[in-house]
Design brief:
Oligomer: single chain
Radius of gyration: 24 Å
Number of helices: 1
Number of strands: 19
Structural class: mainly beta
Strand content: over 45%
CATH class of the domain at 23-73 and 84-131: Mainly Beta
Helix content: under 10%
Largest sheet: 19 strands, antiparallel
């Protein structure tokens, strides 16, 4: 019995030490439908369009990349006229966000690097995060490529620890227009979940969302400036394993997304438009070892 227990302890010690040396990369691809006159005979293009990737370590996203490098050039035609041409290359990385965490897994910095020919080219911006004594986000500061701050917001919490406002460096609310009227209003339930979100302009409501929760299903009701219901969205599996999401535009159209995969990893998304399959998004996962 003691030998068996010792074996189990040694096994998990070795297993965890090995796992700790590896992370994984999640790659996202999209496959679009090639339409024909007969929808039932339409086929999906074989080539995969790269969308982006996420790199994980210790359960945290440490890199987030987006494909579609932008390019542009100026062409002088035979008649000496000038023509500017631009586009994007979906086979190359456009930019990557690099995220750094502290020893308690709190995000402390984030920087965005533009790429050229799949290699880091230039810094676009970076963000620094700071936390209060209750481990809640205290403030975030945004800096440009020259390390000049261009955005700052400090969070204000009430006694229950619920976020009630954001202020700038001078203590002015970021949720107020110059005339002192509110920009947004947020209401929480007893479980600290958002149940209502409202946008205002000049004291009048311009948009409202209402949230209804039922275990792992979340329903969102969207209202316009006249408080008339415009659309409904239902998400089954919003907290744990995603199953499906439906968006219904009243008297117009609806979309549906079906998720396939394991409890921890989504492998495929099927996107429908008015009951017709429109495109598929696939995710691939591969392991990587952290360099010393």
């Amino acid at each position: 019995m003691k030998v068996r227990i010792l074996f189990i302890i040694v096994f998990f010690t070795i297993y965890n030490s090995c796992i700790a040396q590896y992370g994984y990369i999640k790659e996202e691809y999209s496959i679009y439908l090639e339409r024909t006159e007969n929808y039932r005979k339409s086929i999906f293009k074989r080539e995969k369009l790269k969308i982006g990737f996420e790199k994980y370590w210790n359960g945290n996203v440490v890199e987030k990349g987006v494909y579609g490098e932008r390019w542009g050039e100026t062409i002088i035609t035979k008649d000496s006229s000038v023509m500017n041409v631009c586009g994007q290359d979906n086979g190359k990385i456009y930019y990557t966000d690099f995220l750094i965490y502290d020893e308690t897994n709190k995000l402390i910095s984030e920087k965005r690097i533009y790429y050229k020919n799949n290699l880091p080219d230039k810094l676009q911006r970076y963000i620094l995060y700071s936390y209060n004594e209750f481990n809640k986000l205290d403030y975030e500061a945004w800096y440009d490529k020259d390390s000049l701050i261009y955005h700052f917001e400090k969070n204000i919490y009430n006694e229950e620890g619920i976020l009630i406002d954001k202020v700038d460096t001078l203590g002015n609310s970021l949720n107020l227009y110059p005339d002192g009227s509110l920009k947004t209003s947020v209401t929480y339930d007893s479980l600290n979940r958002v149940i209502e979100f409202i946008k205002f302009y000049k004291g009048k409501q311009t948009y409202r969302e209402e949230y209804i929760y039922d275990f792992d299903r979340k329903t969102t009701l969207h209202y316009n400036e006249n408080n008339k219901l415009e659309s409904v969205e239902e998400f089954e599996g919003y907290r744990y394993k995603p199953k499906w999401r439906i968006y219904l535009k009243i008297n117009s159209y609806f979309t549906k997304t079906e998720y396939k995969g394991s409890f921890f990893r989504t492998r495929k998304e099927k996107h429908f438009y008015n009951d017709e399959l429109d495109h598929i998004i696939k995710y691939k996962y591969k392991k990587y070892k952290k360099k010393d």
